[in-house]
Design a protein that fits this description.
Radius of gyration of chain A: 21 Å
Low-confidence stretches of chain B: 1-8, 16-20
Shape of chain B: elongated
Helix content of chain A: 25-40%
CATH topology of one domain in chain B: MetI-like fold
Largest sheet of chain B: none
Structural class of chain B: mainly alpha
Strand content of chain B: under 5%
Distance between the termini of chain B: 31 Å
Number of strands of chain B: 0
Shape of chain A: globular
Number of helices of chain A: 11
Radius of gyration of chain B: 23 Å
Oligomer: heterodimer
Strand content of chain A: 15-25%
Distance between the termini of chain A: 33 Å
Structural class of chain A: alpha/beta
Number of strands of chain A: 12
Mean pLDDT of chain A: 84
Helix content of chain B: over 70%
Chain lengths: 330, 294
């Protein structure tokens, strides 16, 4: 813990600006967190809360309308915001890899699996075709694909969804990255395959001392996989901390509501699941003060007027809620 | 409903099977025959196509009265053998047709990929250029260009290529726009591939199917345009045997009953264009849905 963290975000903001500059959507707003090598961070939040934008911001792959408006992205001590496009390209795939949502669409239908697993090696390490091909076989073996010798020469349509997703995983780890960002990697897989895939990712993480950022809205996956959770709401990080602390004692009302909305084994069957009242806010016209206040059961007058500051509850556990701010400062 | 009606109408059934299912045997054989004839023109042609004897002008084909074994399909106003000219004309049509389609295809596909993938001002410039290009009537534009650079086989290829690239550019750009949103392209970006690598390795192979279909369909258009240019005297220069040129030479004799001078080259053009179009239609049906499914 004494060494510098692998990834540190400091007050990072990404805004989408409409063509005429009249509408601004704060997709990511003043997000700060740190991630150590080899640990796993889960980012949870409902659709449109800025999870994917945060991931794309780290990789600097935002669409043209989005701009990083402030903050720092420190990766291995360097600010990625100051890197040139060419330098970023060397980082992508080699130092930071990413797994996309849909494994069915992530592979080019016209190339063999081996070619695609070998591609990052050839791009980043200049490995020749034959060398890359034999490395591809090892990689397929490491993602537990049986008979990799014959599978390397096959095309994506000859594989099942679970295999394709494992191949995407093999592509991601091919250059031994330090950080792997997985954007809802299991949503299109069925449950048994999901569990297998998560185990695989965890094993790969242990073997390669990989830091993992897991974007999901499945709290079960977070509980199983992650060391830390970051809960996002309307572009803001409303709570960030170790999984055990947050699941046992969530500080933010939104986190409490999220945890209250999942069914539990052994709970009283007559007890109804609590739903979160209301709709997620329109990010182009967010509510005043705390963005969660219209839906918050503990809303106070202050919440409507002023956005709460980031409060440190414990080392590496922060939240943004007036309830957590010590009384004199309110 | 449809099925039972087709069953009662054998002609309808045969027409529908002729259009989409099954390998288009007839068009492919015709094209193969033309290519064979073009390649072996020297061996197959009984006479020199450019030299005739004025003493043997306007000989009718062998089956008509006055025809002789020497000129199987008759002779023209300079006493040149029509069969030999048709055979060498196939060579001109094939060479000009294929190379012009290739020139247009390479130019149009390249610009279409750049336009679609890079977007922004590159896209704007290329697409406005295509719009302006498409606003010009193709044949008139080709005649204008031919008048500027002068007639020769090489120039015809360049002219046809630079007139017809726009069609590829439009179609390919559209394909690229949807392709570049596909996850495998995004994965390649995330994996740190440069734009050039992505266009070369991920986009180009995926649009090749469309380019080939379009090329086959364009073959017919290009062959007709080449014939039209030659007919109008701005295409292949005269002593060379081109089908369009033969039509132009023969049209004066049509009223005098020398039908073979116009009908035969006309049939050659028609069969080649028809075959190319039928093959193109079949390829389009055959290749497209598979590409979408994968």
């Amino acid at each position: 813990m004494s060494a510098a963290p692998l990834l540190e975000l400091r007050n990072l903001s990404t805004h989408y600006v409409s063509a005429r500059g009249t509408r601004v959507v704060r997709a990511v707003d003043e997000v700060s967190l740190t991630l150590e090598a080899g640990s796993t961070l889960g980012i949870v939040g409902e659709s449109g809360s800025g999870k994917s934008t945060l991931a794309l911001t780290i990789l600097r792959l935002l669409p043209p309308a989005a701009h990083i408006t402030g903050g720092e992205i420190l990766f291995e001590g360097d600010d990625l915001r100051t890197k040139s496009d060419v330098e970023m390209r060397r980082i992508r795939g080699k130092r930071i890899a990413m797994i996309l949502q849909d494994p069915m669409a992530s592979l080019n239908p016209l190339f063999t699996v081996g070619d695609q697993v070998a591609e990052p090696l050839r791009v980043h390490e200049g490995v020749g075709r034959a060398g890359a091909w034999s490395r591809a076989k090892d990689l397929l073996k490491s993602v537990r694909i049986s008979a990799p010798e014959s599978r390397v020469g096959e095309y994506p349509h000859q594989m099942s969804g679970g295999m394709r997703q494992r191949i995407v995983g093999a592509i991601a780890i091919s250059c031994a990255p330090r950080l792997l960002i997985a954007d809802e990697p299991t949503t299109s897989l069925d449950l048994t395959i999901q569990a297998q895939y998560l185990n695989l990712l965890r094993d790969l993480q242990r073997q390669h001392e990989l830091a993992l950022i897991f974007i999901t809205h499945n709290l079960g996956i977070v509980a199983k996989m992650c060391d830390q959770v970051a809960v996002m709401y309307a572009g803001r990080l409303v709570e960030w901390g170790p999984v055990t602390r947050i699941f046992d004692a969530p500080a933010h009302p939104y986190t409490q509501a999220l945890l209250g909305s999942i069914p539990r084994m052994g709970a009283d069957a007559r007890e109804r699941l609590t739903a979160i009242e209301g709709q997620p806010p329109d990010l182009a016209a967010p509510p005043s003060g705390c963005a969660f206040h219209p839906r918050c059961p503990h809303v106070m007058a202050q919440c409507r007027e002023q956005a709460p500051p980031e409060t440190v509850l414990a080392p590496r556990h922060t939240t943004r809620c007036w309830l957590s701010v010590p009384a004199p400062a309110r | 409903m449809n099925g039972s009606r087709a069953a009662t109408l054998p002609i309808a059934r045969r027409l529908s099977s002729f259009r989409s299912d099954g390998f288009p045997m007839i068009p492919v054989s015709i094209l193969a025959l033309l290519i064979f004839v073009a390649v072996f023109a020297n061996v197959l042609a009984p006479h020199d196509p450019e030299v005739g004897s004025l003493g043997e002008r306007f000989r009718p084909p062998v089956w008509q009265q006055g025809g002789s074994e020497k000129f199987l399909l008759g002779s023209d106003h300079l006493g040149r053998d029509v069969l030999s000219r048709l055979i060498f004309g196939a060579r001109v049509s094939i060479v000009v047709g294929f190379t012009a389609v290739l020139v247009a295809g390479v130019l149009g596909t390249g610009l279409g990929i750049l336009s679609g993938y890079l977007g922004g001002w590159v896209d704007q410039v290329i697409m406005r250029l295509t719009d302006a290009w498409l606003a010009l009537p193709a044949l008139t534009f080709a005649i204008f260009l031919a008048a500027v650079v002068g007639p020769s086989e090489m120039n015809i290829v360049i002219i046809l290529g630079s007139v017809y690239w726009t069609r590829y550019a439009r179609v390919i750009r559209g394909e690229v726009l949807s392709l570049k949103e596909r996850d495998f392209v995004r994965l390649a970006i995330v994996a740190g591939c440069s734009k050039r690598t992505i266009m070369k390795r991920h986009i180009l192979p995926n649009v090749l199917n469309s380019a080939i279909v379009l090329g086959t369909l364009m073959l017919g258009v290009v062959v007709v345009t080449e014939a039209a240019l030659s007919f109008l005297g701005v295409g292949v220069p005269p002593p060379k045997p081109a089908w369009g040129l033969m039509l132009a030479d023969g049209k004066k004799g049509m009223m005098a009953g020398y039908w073979w001078l116009t009908v035969l080259p006309g049939c050659c053009i028609m069969f080649m264009v028809l075959s190319a179009n039928l093959l193109g239609d079949w390829l389009r049906v055959k290749l497209d849905p598979q590409l979408r499914q994968l």
